[in-house]
Design a protein that fits this description.
Order of helices and strands: HEEEEEHHEHEHEEHHEHEHEH
Signal peptide: 1-21
Helix content: 25-40%
Shape: globular
Low-confidence stretches: 1-30
Strand content: 15-25%
Region (Disordered): 237-257
CATH class: Alpha Beta
Number of strands: 12
Distance between the termini: 14 Å
Radius of gyration: 19 Å
Protein name: Alpha/beta hydrolase fold protein
CATH architecture: 3-Layer(aba) Sandwich
EC number: 3.-.-.-
CATH superfamily: Alpha/Beta hydrolase fold, catalytic domain
Mean pLDDT: 91
Number of helices: 10
Domain AB hydrolase-1: 62-329
CATH topology: Rossmann fold
């Protein structure tokens, strides 16, 4: 990028951040790394929370991180535990990094129905709505960095959302990373095969429930061999902190829309919700060998359908869990991060 363009991009970024962002973690700065939080307009009446991590030297392709069906962005990707913030790893490698919350999650707008009882009724926030939110964040990132295209990194349902966005807006995505995600390749899943479409608009989760599937997938009687206890504590704490109403319930619990679970049910039972043949981005598919969410068939079919992608890579992480980016470095995190950084330009 020429010097004049660099100055213009920097000026735009600083102006937008000055106008709309507030410093987080009491203005914390680690070295030259800064974190800012803002909200970006999406659909009418919907604002999407975005955390930006920047350094003065971060000028590679910007990355947007997409959370999964339950735990929102900061708890998933920016835990305040040294060595366990994927967002910080990416920005230290030179990528301006943005963590978003889909509507209904974390710091983003929540549908009015989420203020009532979970009850019964239509699940809220389906994939098409999240695609709207992703597009709003992509436009925000383009305005603040000067980049015409971005990299999307999606975990679990976040990978499904990222793939759907890349299929519908191929001109806005240069690199796509989908890990431990469903694609609708087969009818059959041990935990997602049954779903009531009238199960209610949202669901509640307490802290300990976040560790149940994680603990079950760790192939050791002592889970601390796989997961740092500080990570387990911070993951629960940050997830609960993402919902201002969490302490109003006993036990404390946070809300997450049920639409992601309805869509995941369809993907788990053979209903493909988007077509990978529409994607043109360089694409990396990562699957943990011990993942309980995605299936080998999802990887195989997605790779087979990516006929117009600029390039396709697949990586299987041996003896790694669904939560690999939060596991100990020697239990798959280092290998995951290495594959990710080797792929991103």
């Amino acid at each position: 990028m020429r010097a004049a363009n660099r100055l213009a991009v920097a000026a735009t970024f600083l102006a937008v951040m000055f106008a709309t962002a507030c410093e987080t973690r009491s203005g914390e700065s680690t070295g030259e790394l800064s974190r800012t939080d803002t909200r970006v307009g999406s659909a009418p009446g919907v604002e999407v929370a975005v955390r930006a991590l920047r350094t003065e030297s971060a000028d590679r392709v910007p990355v947007i991180l997409l959370h999964g069906a339950r735990v929102p962005g900061i708890a998933s990707f920016d835990l305040p535990v040294p060595g366990y913030s994927l967002a910080e790893d990416l920005v230290r490698a030179g990528h301006p990094t943005f963590i978003m919350d889909a509507r209904g999650y974390g710091g983003s707008s929540r549908p009015a129905e989420m203020d009532g009882d979970p009850g019964t009724g239509r699940p809220l926030v389906r994939s098409n709505e999240v695609v709207e939110d992703i597009h709003a964040v992509v436009e925000h990132v383009a305005a603040t960095t000067g980049a015409e295209r971005v990299a999307l990194v999606g975990w679990a349902t976040g990978g499904h959302w990222a793939g759907m966005y890349a299929a519908t807006h191929p001109d806005r995505v240069s690199h796509l990373v989908i890990y431990n995600s469903l694609y609708g390749a087969a009818d059959g899943h041990p935990t997602l095969a049954v779903f009531d479409p009238e199960s209610g608009p949202y669901r509640l989760s307490d802290g300990p429930s976040l560790l149940t599937s994680w603990d079950r997938s760790i192939p050791a009687s002592d889970v601390t061999l796989w997961r740092d206890p500080r990570v387990a504590e911070a993951y629960q704490r940050e997830a609960l902190a993402s919902d201002p109403t969490s302490e109003s319930r006993t036990p404390a619990s946070f809300r997450a829309p049920n639409g992601a679970m309805e869509d995941s049910h369809y993907l788990a039972t053979g209903r493909q919700l988007w077509d990978a043949s529409l994607i043109t981005a360089e694409t990396l598919i990562i699957r943990s060998e011990l993942d309980f969410w995605s299936r080998p068939e999802d990887v195989e079919d997605m790779r087979r359908h990516l006929v117009h992608a600029a390039g396709v890579r697949t990586v299987v992480l041996p003896q790694a869990t669904h939560y690999v980016h939060l596991d100990r470095p020697e239990r798959g995190r280092d290998q995951f991060l290495g594959a990710l950084l080797d792929f991103l330009p």
